[in-house]
Amino acid sequence: MKPPIPTRGAPDNPVNRFEAIEVEPDPDWYEEDERPPQTQFIRDHAQTIISYNDSPDLNFRASVNPYRGCEHGCVYCYARPTHEYAGMSAGLDFETRILVKQDAHELLRKELSARKWTPQLIALSGATDCYQPVERKLRITRRCLEVLAEARNPVANVTKNALVTRDLDLLTKLHKHHAAAVFVSLTTLDTDLRKILEPRTSPPAARLRAIQQLSQAGIPTGVMLAPAIPALNEPEIPALLDAASKAGARHAALIPLRLPYGVAPMFEQWLETHFPLRKEKILNRIRNMRGGRLNDAEFGDRFKGNGVQADQMRKMFEVACRKNGINREELNLSTDAFRRPEKDQLTLF
Q1: How many other CB atoms are there within 10 angstroms of residue 189's CB atom?
Q2: Which of 6, 109, 253, 262 is most buried, taking the most CB atoms under 10 A from its CB?
Q3: Rg for the chain, CA atoms, rounded
Q4: What angle do helix axes 308-323 and 237-247 make, rounded to 10 degrees?
Q5: d(CA 104, CA 144)
Q6: Which residues have CB under 8 Å from 301's CB, separation 6+?
Q7: Partners of 252 in the beta sheet?
Q8: Of the candidates 282, 239, 233, the residue with the CA atom closest to the CA atom of residue 259
Q9: Would you say the C-alpha torsion 134, 135, 136, 140 has a positive or negative sign?
């Protein structure tokens, strides 16, 4: 078994499920490069930026993803298989070869200006994290938020990165029109677990500070307990909600672990490396929630799970929410103040 790569989630590059040929080097003559893989940023020449879904499991239809792939390196990430559509692997490629939509804000302005655009909630982002590390430099997400603030179009951010507080000024502008919300993904309070589960994300304390800053600024703020992994971070659910509530979170959502396509064997390998004695217990409990399998893609079940294990997890979550005053009110964002942005933004010389 290959040793873990420091600050990376995947140990290697499993074969792309769409490829008919798999190249496996001969260890007798091939010497693998021992240098840690460096992140590459590749320009994505996207023609559109707003993606649409018709999933009954989601509370939004439209989403914007400034990046494809994610340097955060979360081993469990359900978005990993999307990299295979770009001819790459769901493993190390997903976290080291990042497709960057440099023109995202211009495409967003164009699409929001079009007469066919119906004002509605936009999720930023629906797949990979819009505040992954390179955002600090590239500021693509911030430029998209500038367009959304100009248009007063409602947006909900989901992120694991405390960098979201950089954009408090824009979120505050949107909140004046009831058009902004932020959900911070909070999966563990254990800093050691975070380092191997979500290698390049913000530490738990930084995420809690971000929740505090957002809530103190009046932004509707919540936490995503996603994924909840049985026998790993699941026991932390009450403590996570208690900490989030004390930081100011008033909304929360729970999603049990999902392991689509090649993510399942990758997660199994990760368990064998880091938690060999608990591996079978964790996998068996996942199967208990997923109809005997490691993944269930059926609408209605994929975000909730089913069976005794899923019911117990959900009840623990609901009790902790009630105890901490979370989810007492519905979160409703408004499109009432929407205005179409100028198609070509004026430039002052």
Answers
A1: 18
A2: 109
A3: 20
A4: 30
A5: 7
A6: 290, 291
A7: 223
A8: 282
A9: positive
Whole-structure pTM value: 0.92
The tokens 């929740």 sit on which residue? 211
Instruction: Find out whether 153 and 119 touch, Cβ atoms under 8 Å.
Output: yes
CB burial class (10 A; 0-12, 13-18, 19+) of residue 238? middle
Query: Strand runs (DSSP E) across the chain, as ranges?
Result: 40-43, 50-52, 62-64, 67-68, 97-100, 122-124, 155-159, 180-185, 221-228, 251-256
- Whether 109 has a pLDDT exceeding 80, the answer reads yes
C-alpha angle 61-66-69 in degrees, rounded to nearest 5: 100
Residue with tokens 């938020």: 145
Q: DSSP string of 236-281?
A: GHHHHHHHHHHHT--EEEEEE----TTHHHHHHHHHHHH-TTTHHH
Task: For residues 44 and 41, give the distance between their C-alpha atoms in angstroms, rounded to a whole number.
Answer: 9
What values do phi and psi take at 200, rounded to 5?
-110, 25
- Of the ranges 16-20, 201-205, 288-292, 345-349, which one carries the lowest mean pLDDT score? 345-349
Count CB atoms within 10 A of the CB of residue 52.
11
Q: Which amino acid does the sequence have at 219? A: I
Q: Which residue has the tokens 């009630």?
A: 322
Q: Using CA atoms, how far apart are residues 161 and 253, in angstroms rounded to an integer?
A: 18
CB contact at 8 A, 337 and 177 = yes
Cβ pair 227, 257 in contact under 8 A: yes
Report the distance separating Cα 16 and Cα 18, nearest Å.
5
Q: Which two tokens stand for residue 265?
A: 């064997």
Which token pair is 4?
A: 């873990």
Span 6-60, pLDDT tens digits: 899 998 898 888 876 665 655 554 455 567 789 999 999 999 999 999 998 888 9
Q: Are 227 and 255 in contact (CB under 8 A)?
A: yes
Looking up tokens 């999902």 gives 258
Q: What is the predicted pLDDT for the residue at 30?
A: 44
DSSP 16: P
